[in-house]
Amino acid sequence: xxxxxxxxxxxxxxxxxxxxxxxxxxxxxxxxxxxxxxxxxxxxxxxxxxxxxxxxxxxxxxxxxxxxxxxxxxxxxxxxxxxxxxxxxxxxxxxxxxxxxxxxxxxx
Length: 108
Hints:
By secondary structure, the protein is mainly α.
């Protein structure tokens, strides 16, 4: 069983990289992670074995990990957010805080 931190991480990776997945991969991920269906429920819907669902979900996670390992988009966002928070805590200058606010908004 995955812990909540790992689930959140995969949700974030999916938000970033879902466009690189096939429709089939998206379907399995969404059923399992977004709709919270069990492997057995997905197997019934997709008319495949429970083991096939497990393999498909595992495959999607491997793809998401590979994309992040290669492109590092999520990691970069996390690092930029930490730097922005550090900057905010070290200044009271209103013009700098306005720039920091614009940076935060551009990180969507």
